[in-house]
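Table S2 (continued). Query chain:
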Amino acid sequence: QVHLVESGGGLVQPGGSLRLSCAASGMIFSMYAMGWYRQAPGKQRELVAGIRSGGSSNYADSVKGRFTISRDNLKDTVYLQMNSLKPEDTAVYYCNAQLYRDNYWGQGTQVTVSS
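Corresponding output:
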């Protein structure tokens, strides 16, 4: 059974940084495309960043230059380094794993950017 467990969320001041982690189990991690999504209250879930099995990545325009996604295939973990955080980055952040028709989600971790 596949499990994705996010950690690293919390409360941070504007301009601050956080690093989210997503530990995967029950899957051949290196084969999956991994992504971070977020959902703010009253808004649709949106893609923040994705990283393919080969390591290429893509980002939402709103986070380019501030966020970095990376993966460690030895630790079965994907990371999201978030710098220069803004209040509009406040949301629940979800980890996602995709391979063909397989699509898995973590439970989410809250990120709140506020002074």
